[in-house]
């Protein structure tokens, strides 16, 4: 089968890989209908994160179940399924508390390489959620987004306690930030401030429910958010970048007693204790427990109440994955969908 493999920074190749097969009796094999390039794939692509090269790539997927192991009970061949970037049992104490991304039996899907024609999904019963039927083609991008970016943006908004009567600010205009805007809207936020300098991303943010756009960054961005919130700061701030600047911007733009939900993968971020102390902010985040939200998100997509798939502004055949990485690296595309 064909699959994307990263050989080093800037070097993505689609090549023949060994087809996955059932290893554990709890596994499923799915034929991938759609996969995509994640903002977090850009960290190794840019040489910021060390990997064991060559590495199969991709952790977002939606597709049709082809085969299941002997112990799989709820998932069956022929179903269209979506899963998170962590395979999880959905039964341990941590999963039952809603923190699937720290499941005691978790398996990282990225190591298995979802940017491929087929994929082995461990812990199939706990990981995969089936759609009511085979989706029409136009629903596939949105369903795929639930696998990571939608679920991650959603968790960011939930962690920031976005809700009715709240002013929510979102730092970051990548796919996760834009979908945090969508999530804040769905959760009933009154005012949603999107931080973006890019016209096409601003447009999508407005479409998803942003009421205000702030173009400034750093301290100027914080000042702009305070000006929009009676000088107090936002009740809820979603951080969806993962840099020192974005994290400080998020904490400083939050009012005392407010909530920061951080979902950007933090790189070289250091928090100053006194700064945190005086902020009086609740700070919560990490790798999103996407599986917690999947049934609800699939339902919203299936009933066409949300269209998160709009964040995919470039679609390429899997064989052109390298061009997809390049486009996202150059910020020519918000998010790239790959069709095996
Ligand atoms: Zn678990």
The sequence of SSEs as H and E is EEEHEEEEHEEHEHHEHEHEHEHEHEHEHE
CATH class of the largest domain: Alpha Beta
Query: Percent range for helical residues?
Result: 25-40%
Distance between the termini: 10 Å
CATH fold assignment of the largest domain? Quinone Oxidoreductase, Chain A, domain 1
Superfamily (CATH H level) name of the largest domain: Medium-chain alcohol dehydrogenases, catalytic domain
Give the integer mean of the pLDDT values. 96
Poorly predicted tracts of residues = none
Q: In total, how many beta strands?
A: 18
Describe the model.
- It is a single chain.
- The chain is an alpha/beta fold and 340 residues long.
- The protein folds into 2 domains: 198 residues, Quinone Oxidoreductase, Chain A, domain 1, CATH 3.90.180.10; 133 residues, 3-Layer(aba) Sandwich (Rossmann fold), CATH 3.40.50.720.
- Helix content is 29%, strand content 26%.
- It has 12 helices and 18 strands.
- The strands form 4 sheets. Strands 3, 5, 6, 9, 10, 17 and 18 form a 7-stranded mixed sheet that branches. The chain has a 6-stranded parallel sheet with strand order 13-12-11-14-15-16, sandwiched between helices. A 3-stranded antiparallel sheet has the order 2-1-4, covered by helices on one side.
- α6 links the parallel β11 and β12.
- The longest helix has 13 residues.
- The protein is globular and about 60 Å long.
- The N and C termini lie close together (10 Å).
- The mean pLDDT is 96.
- The structure holds zinc ion.
- The site of zinc ion has 8 residues, from α2.
